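Lab notebook: predicted structure, single chain.

Context: the supervisor wants predicted structures on file for every construct in the current expression panel, including those that have not yet been purified. This is the next one on the list. No modifications to the sequence; it matches the entry in the shared construct table.
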Amino acid sequence: MSPPISIRHAVVTDASDISKLIVSTSETCCFSEAAPCPDWYLNSIQTQAIETLIASDRMVFLLALNDQAIAGVLAIEDKSTIKYFFVDPEQQKMGIGKLLWQFSKNSGEFGARLKVRSSLFAVPVYERLGFEAVGPPSCFNGLHYQPMANHNPPEHPIKVPPPTIPP
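Prediction complete. Output recorded below exactly as produced.
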């Protein structure tokens, strides 16, 4: 039996591991040899950039830990924009993303309306979370995305037992 997934807020010293997760997941799920990851995007998800974001008052970074290793990350800017939402590809479809989402919703990390520039790979995930496309797929400097918004987040979050949060 595997240990339970725990959820906690990120600290600056987590930045290197968060960066590695985002880089590896992006390269595995969102890019290919024919459509490589743009350099500007890779630079924006390096350790120093992630450290700056974690330290910002505008950002909330939540981590899902599986056996003390980062298995997922959800970063929310100004309670209104999903900045990063990644789960380790080897641990996808295990409920880790759903736990991060429910924890965020139940702990008040989301505002009344959420928006995201979803990778085309992740559109079905966001649709299952109640998001809808709010425009055509777009491309910014080699990064293809679908603008999406959740216009009707539930007023009463689904009650799930909160994940274990280490002290």
